[in-house]
Amino acid sequence: MFIRMPRLLAGALLFLLFAASLPGWAQSTADQVAGKSGDLAEGKRLFRVNCAGCHKWHGGGGGGYGGDALSLRKTKLDRAEIIETVSCGRPGTGMPYHRRDAYADGTCYGLHEKDVVGNGMVLAANNFLRPPEIAAIADYVLAEVKGHGEPNYQECLAFFGPGSRVCDIYAPGDAAKKTAP
Ligand code: HEC
Fold first, then answer.
1. How far is the CA of 13 from the centre of ligand 1 (A)?
2. From first to last of its 181 residues, what are the pLDDT tens digits of the chain?
3. How far is CA 157 from the centre of its chain?
4. Whose CA is nearest to atom 16 of ligand 1?
5. Does any ligand 1 atom lie closer than 6 A to the CB of residue 180?
């Protein structure tokens, strides 16, 4: 008994240490699933491929194919609302849905395939995205786009890479000649 007690205590202590480490592990896993931890680069890449065609690289939107894409810089939507809009699209507008089964299970505005997809009320995206990819895009929009003012030269270079000629139109006077090749 006297010999076994310390062992039991040590065992209990080890168990407590192990348990204490669990919430941190669970949290970082949850963050990864939500696309939060350092996944901005991936969100940006996905934004560039899937969204910039209509919303422009700066997210400011404007006219073009698909109608007037709203400004994501001026949007009032929160994370959940952005995820819903990207997943489900917006019926009756040029904003396409990006989740493959969006209208298969009634989770988008309670609407089904036959209500909206067949008759062209809602457009399908060119590429469908998985929920973690949509979350990564939403986090990118929240971090780098929403609430930002007019797009500027530095921001453009940060998006396209140093020296990108597409950014010349934002270059302020002489700075353009110095920085852009
Ligand atoms: C084919 C063009 C097109 C593509 C591609 C597109 N959008 Fe849109 N988006 C639109 C249009 C048009 C609207 C405006 C809808 C309306 O009038 O309500 C819009 C609206 C939105 C809104 C609502 C903004 C608000 O404040 O109400 C969000 C958020 C959004 N888009 C995000 C995205 C993201 C993120 C992507 C990439 C995954 C994307 N869109 C891809 C055309 C597009």
1. 53
2. 455 555 555 545 444 444 444 444 344 444 444 445 458 999 999 999 999 999 999 999 987 765 689 999 999 999 999 999 999 999 999 999 999 999 998 999 999 999 898 888 999 999 999 999 999 999 999 999 999 999 999 999 999 999 999 999 999 875 545 454 4
3. 20
4. 93
5. no
